UniProtKB/TrEMBL annotation:
InterPro entries: ACT-like_dom_sf, ACT_dom, Chor_mutase/pphenate_deHydtase, Preph_deHydtase, Preph_deHydtase_CS. Pfam families: PDT. One of its GO terms (molecular function) is prephenate dehydratase activity. Pathway: Amino-acid biosynthesis; L-phenylalanine biosynthesis; phenylpyruvate from prephenate: step 1/1. GO terms for biological process: L-phenylalanine biosynthetic process. GO terms for cellular component: cytoplasm. The lineage of its organism: Bacteria, Bacillati, Bacillota, Bacilli, Bacillales. The record marks 177 as: Essential for prephenate dehydratase activity. This is Prephenate dehydratase. PANTHER family: PREPHENATE DEHYDRATASE P PROTEIN, PREPHENATE DEHYDRATASE-RELATED. The keyword Amino-acid biosynthesis applies. It comes from Streptohalobacillus salinus. Residues 4-184 form the Prephenate dehydratase domain.
Amino acid sequence: MSDAIGYLGPKGTFTNIAVDALFKNEHSMPYQTIPACFDAVKFGHVKYAVVPLENTLEGTVNLTLDYLIASKTLKIVSEIIVPVKQHFMVHEKNADRWEQVETIYSHPHALAQCHHFLSQTMRHAKNVTYSSTGAAAQFVSEHPEHHIGAIANEQAAETYGLRIVRSNIHDLDNNHTRFVVLHKNDTALRSLHLPIRGFKTTFMIALPTDHAGALHQVLSAFSWRRINLSKIESRPMKTALGQYYFLIDIEQKMDDILVPNTIQEIEAIGCQVEVLGSYPYYSSEDQQMD
Ligand SMILES: O=C(O)C(=O)C[C@]1(C(=O)O)C=C[C@@H](O)C=C1
């Protein structure tokens, strides 16, 4: 097995920034899609994989959540939050006439985060989705003959030699994305470079179909123990209409008594409970520059 860190690439994605902050100079390996990152860690081509899970403006990255639910073998072992600043960039050759760019490429989340800029300043341009912001920037750099631009971060502009012609075009300032580190076993991953901000545990819960008020009882199992939830969300089971998994994050790590007892109480109602990970979380904003 390789000790490399797989991530949603190519170089210059926000996921790449997350990897650099968490792992610094460890060997990393870009993959083109989120499912490819899952496969890479599942089949042992890399030791860990880093994928985006949630954004302040756009919410959950459904592809990541669905693969996490489906993959019975991978666990979340760490989390890092990264500020997301989007810039509009073009090839040097097109820098003088950037306002007439005909097509703008980016990841669907990034396009959605820049709705104001796209619908006001660049109303005339066609928006085309790409597998990542970094891949969009790379594509633009390889096609100077086309009048096109990309929405990506500063690192992508540097990596692919593009000129940023409009900075900070995301709709709201407080734009952050949460990335998770996946691994084959559940041993929490401690960063050597960042201070721990706190701990989380993520559950996947399937409710019994014939039990009125089951969700209410699940929530009360957490609430009477004063366990703080930081997220709750439902995803279709993809088996029949109306059947959902509930994904719940709590602000605490797995222990010997409180969390196992909560799980027992929830299982007693007839729910199926799976722990998707119990892990520390970090912020790239805590990095010490050296
Ligand atoms: O395209 C990238 O740069 C990514 O890392 C993916 C991704 C996402 O999936 O949301 C990550 C952060 C930003 O929110 C935009 C795109």
